[in-house]
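User: quick one, sequence for these tokens?
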């Protein structure tokens, strides 16, 4: 239960920092600022609740950890549910705060939801969205598994993972708004509705596939140190 509560809190931090920066400060800090906010959220969560739950904050990460043989199926399900709850609570908090601004409209201003195609950032295609989310999540989970293995310097893991998420946003925020995390996408989409919900499958399927592949590759020993393979 303590691990699950930690995952709720950690995923809340991720969504509140990341999506909150886009909704409440996006006009002032732009894509670069939003990218940094997402990265900082990972650093904050990793060093605060990482020792409790590992600070996965992301069903794709938990799936990768499971496929790497470091988590049971039951633990994966419990983590994923906790992460979706945390993301939903984070999105709700942002929505309530944003609604305190007279001209805020979720239909116009959004809630930091992910999307592609007409009306979404660079208006990239479905194929581009799927490919980006798959590749980015594979790389993200590969970094996480590598940075948290026994042979890696433990004190630097949170920073390495946070900087990686920042880099991913700098590459792809104009493509999909960057998910690489089904929970992060589900939370805002539940409130935004419409296209965010109809396109949600992309931000569930592609990240999970990328995370699973990263776990399989790690378990094979290709991306693991000899004593972690």
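Assistant:
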């Amino acid at each position: 239960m303590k691990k699950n509560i930690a995952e709720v809190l950690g995923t809340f931090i991720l969504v509140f920092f990341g999506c909150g920066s886009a909704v409440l400060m996006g006009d002032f800090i732009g894509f670069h600022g939003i990218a940094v906010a997402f990265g900082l959220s990972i650093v904050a969560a990793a060093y605060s609740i990482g020792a409790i739950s590992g600070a996965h904050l992301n069903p794709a990460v938990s799936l990768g950890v499971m496929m790497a043989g470091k988590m049971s199926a039951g633990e994966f399900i419990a983590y994923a549910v906790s992460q979706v709850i945390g993301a939903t609570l984070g999105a709700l908090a942002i929505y309530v705060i944003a609604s305190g601004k007279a001209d805020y409209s979720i239909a116009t201003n959004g809630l930091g939801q992910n999307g592609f195609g007409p009306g979404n950032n660079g208006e990239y295609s479905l194929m581009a969205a799927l490919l980006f989310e798959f590749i980015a999540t594979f790389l993200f989970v590969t970094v996480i598994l590598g940075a948290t293995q026994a042979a890696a310097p433990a004190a630097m893991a949170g920073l390495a993972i946070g900087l990686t998420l920042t880099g991913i946003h700098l590459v792809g925020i104009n493509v999909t708004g960057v998910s690489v995390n089904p929970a992060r996408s589900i939370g805002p989409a539940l409130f935004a509705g419409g296209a965010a919900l109809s396109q949600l499958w992309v931000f569930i399927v592609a990240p999970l596939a990328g995370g699973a592949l990263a776990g399989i590759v790690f378990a094979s020993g290709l991306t693991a140190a000899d004593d972690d393979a």
